Amino acid sequence: MSTARLCFTAFAVAFMVALSTGCMSSGNKIAAADVNQIQKGVTTRAEVEQKLGPPAFSGIYPEGKRMLQYNYYESTSDGRYMIPVVGLFSGSGTQKQQMLQIIIDKNGIVEDVEFTDSNSKTEGGMLNTKRTVEPAPK
């Protein structure tokens, strides 16, 4: 193989690794401080939406109640998964998941709040994957 072709091949592999490394996210991050300001029996739906924006999902329950749901997901990887053969055996990535569910009573007041915030890390490859999940720091 010529030196020019070898250099081009090395550059192409390095470029593909650089492109495949990165982050993907969906939704808006949910700040724990914002969630802590939501008070059962006090905070109104309008105040929740003013603070957090419109929910990703809004459902109607019997008795006139509503459920507002906010979600956030983020995933990053180091790009080794994208390299043929090497990706079968190595690579790592992290995931962050947040979900906030708020029940609003028929009078428009917060009745219940549930917030889940977790981080996980995946290491290995297709033949030897290890995944650890832990709650996000408070």
Q: What Rg do the Cα atoms give?
A: 22 Å
Major β-sheet annotation:
6 strands, antiparallel
User: Residue-averaged pLDDT, rounded?
Assistant: 78
Count of domain modules: 1
Shape: elongated
| Helix and strand run | HEHHEEHEEE
> Quick one: how many beta strands?
6
Structural class: alpha+beta
Q: Which percent bin holds the helix content?
A: 25-40%
What is the terminal separation in angstroms?
A: 55 Å
pLDDT under 50 segments (min length 5)? 10-20
- Beta fraction of the residues? 35-45%
Number of helices, where a helix is a run of at least 4 consecutive DSSP H or I residues: 4
Describe this structure in a few short sentences.
By secondary structure, the chain is α+β, with helices and mostly antiparallel strands. Helices cover 25% and strands 40% of the residues.
Can you describe this structure?
The protein is α+β, with helices and mostly antiparallel strands and 138 residues long. The protein has one domain (22-135). It has helices at residues 3-20, 32-36, 45-52, 86-89, and strands at 22-27, 57-60, 66-77, 92-104, 110-123, 130-135. Strands 1, 2, 3, 4, 5 and 6 form a 6-stranded antiparallel beta sheet that branches. The N and C termini lie far apart (55 Å).
